[in-house]
Write a sequence for this structure.
């Protein structure tokens, strides 16, 4: 009888440890934030967001938490702005579905990239401006004196 109780207790401990381990690793997997991607279209539009995986082959690509790059030519200091897609003047939803045949390329962003950090800051309520480009402004092209036709 004592032997049977020891086996049941041991089995209970193994089950609790197994459930705890699976729960811990499952929680880590699902609590990790999905990475951000850049998606460039044939139209020249560039979108940033989290890819939603589809089980249907050949289906459209869906981006969640979508942002888009806006070129503000009036701002000479920082001409590029990152705008949340749902904040566009026509009032779209936060997700966008893109046709696969219109996509030129998709690139996973580094978690510490300027775009990923700007999106995370905006999501946390910190409306920090998109960081200025690290590319220095181009110097004007040197003037080439006109050749004279004097001989």
């Amino acid at each position: 009888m004592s032997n049977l109780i020891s086996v049941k207790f041991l089995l209970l401990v193994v089950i609790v440890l197994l459930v705890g381990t699976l729960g811990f690793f499952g929680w880590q997997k699902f609590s990790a934030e999905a990475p951000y991607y850049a998606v460039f279209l044939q139209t020249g539009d560039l979108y940033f967001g989290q890819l939603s995986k589809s089980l249907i082959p050949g289906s459209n690509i869906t981006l969640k938490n979508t942002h888009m790059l806006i070129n503000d030519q009036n701002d000479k200091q920082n001409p590029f702005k990152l705008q949340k897609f749902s904040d566009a003047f026509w009032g779209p939803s936060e997700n966008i579905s893109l046709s696969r045949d219109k996509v030129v390329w998709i690139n996973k962003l580094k978690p510490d990239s300027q775009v990923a950090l700007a999106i995370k800051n905006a999501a946390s309520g910190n409306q920090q401006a998109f960081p200025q480009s690290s590319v220095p402004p181009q110097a004007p092209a040197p003037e080439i004196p006109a050749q004279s036709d004097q001989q």
Q: What stands out?
A: Residues 2-31 form the longest helix (30 residues). Residues 132-142 have pLDDT under 50 and may be disordered. The beta strands are 37-41, 46-52, 61-71, 80-84, 96-98, 103-108. The chain is about 25% helix and 25% strand.
